[in-house]
Amino acid sequence: MNGQRAYASVVAAYWGFTLTDGALRMLVLLHFFTLGYTPFQLAFLFLLYEVAGMATNLFGGWAATRFGLNVTLASGLALQVAALMMLSGLDPAWSPSWSVAYVVLAQGLAGVAKDLTKTSAKSAIKLVTPEGQSAALFRYVAWLTGSKNALKGVGFFLGGVLLSTMGFVSALRLMAAALAVVFVATVLALPRMFGKAKQVSRLREIFAKTRAINLLAAARIALFGARDVWFVVGLPVFLYANGWTFAEVGGFLAAWTIGYGAVQGLAHRIVPRSADGLSAEVPAARLWASVLAAIPIAIAVVLGTAPASAAQAVVVAGLALFGVAFAVNSALHSYLIVAYAGSEKVAEDVGFYYAANATGRLAGTLLSGLLYQAGGLPACLLGSFAMLACCAAISLALPARSAAAARA
Q: Exposed (0-12), middle (13-18) or buried (19+): which is 406, by Cβ within 10 Å?
């Protein structure tokens, strides 16, 4: 099997996983909200999911270079099947404290599964793109990231529909069965040793990254914290509390995520390109970070002055603008990490970067519950603005040099 076919197999597996990941988030969030969980308790359900993602990205990239991307990808799929089946065994007769602990543990497995799968898929891009073809690299990254988020949006909608039509347990079991089929197909399709490095780093070298990668990781923490601080708990709870049904909440978040994914897929056409792959792209990252920071503070100001009857329309319109700017920012970051990374151990660099991504999601998830409980959606938006201001400031320090020079 050649590199392109191997990459196609990885992408297909990533798509299958992404559908279940999006649906699972919506199922857990809406199901436990109807059981009377507070916004902070809902955020706590995702705590281990994000913590596990941080550790998995760090050590998953190292494992991929040691054992091969086929091993880490298959492991991610298998763990997701296990997490879905574990959640389906939740007993309504259990005490609330035991139920929360059980769900948090199952979500932790899902977090490991997600980031093993994502690191494998993103690392494969670098391996199948010839050196010096930065335009093709940006196109592949943007397309994979955009399609993944579009499918995650479909997963949000699927989760809302399945919860309404089949119930929590039956929906989980159906998804587990479907993903098990994907797992078997992936194991049979991928070649052995795909992505395995000739020389593997010692574990302590996982943290020895270049200044460019460290700065980009810091910016990524702030970027994804700024999204999740209002998107994970605040926004869906706000919509449901204002009379939206499960399917409507899931459908709206699905439409937003699909649109956001579509913009990501087109980012390589929006962002100016350079021959060295960095001298135009890094200034673009600085510009778009500043544009994005202005949006949540503007939404918060309008919400504070507009009549209550217009609040939902303001949030929906503001979220659309936020989605466009966030998509371009995210696509630029996803391109820059593979541009800065080395080819031999790309999975380690990508894993380190996505550990930062998970750190941002963890902070945003916890703050989403806390801030919404303290001050509603406006408080979440102010938190988002503060994080994006940090992202814009860090982006000013990103080096606009060639990938080889950035690693020197």
A: buried
CB 77 within 8 A of CB 85: no
Share of the chain above pLDDT 70, in %: 86
Q: With CA atoms as reference, report the closest residue to 51 among 361, 353, 350.
A: 361
| CA proximity to 162, closest of 33, 37, 42, 20 | 20
25 vs 20, 32, 355, CA distance in Å? 9, 11, 19
Can you state the angle between helices 134-165 and 311-340, rounded to 10 degrees?
A: 140
Residue 206 has pLDDT above 60, yes or no: no
Q: What is the DSSP string of 104-137?
A: HHHHHHHHHHHHHHHHHHHHHHHHHSPTT-HHHH
- For 10, 128, 347, the CA distances from 122, given in Å and listed in that order, are 9, 11, 8
**For range 324-353, the mean pLDDT:** 80
Inter-residue contact 154 to 258 (CB < 8 Å): yes
Least trusted range by pLDDT, from 87-96, 172-181, 191-200, 350-359: 191-200
Pairwise CA distance, residues 206 & 349, whole Å: 8
For residues 338 and 354, give the distance between their C-alpha atoms in angstroms, rounded to a whole number. Answer: 12
CA distances from 334 to 132, 215, 291, 348 (A): 17, 13, 18, 15
Gap between the Cα atoms of 261 and 258, Å rounded:
5
Q: What burial class does residue 244 get, using C-beta atoms within 10 Å of its C-beta: 0-12 exposed, 13-18 middle, 19+ buried? A: middle
Q: Residue 76: CB partners within 8 Å, gap ≥ 6?
A: 17, 112, 113, 114, 115, 116, 117, 120
**Distance between CA 286 and CA 284 in Å, rounded?**
5
**Nearest residue to 138 (alpha-carbon basis) of 11, 273, 257:** 273
**pTM of the predicted model as reported, rounded to 2 decimal places:** 0.70
Q: Is 376 left (phi over 0), alpha (psi -120 to 50) or beta?
A: left
279-321 pLDDT, tens digit each = 889 999 999 999 999 999 999 999 888 887 888 899 999 999 9
Site of tokens 């700024």: 226
How many Cα atoms sit within 13 Å of 216 on the Cβ side? 31
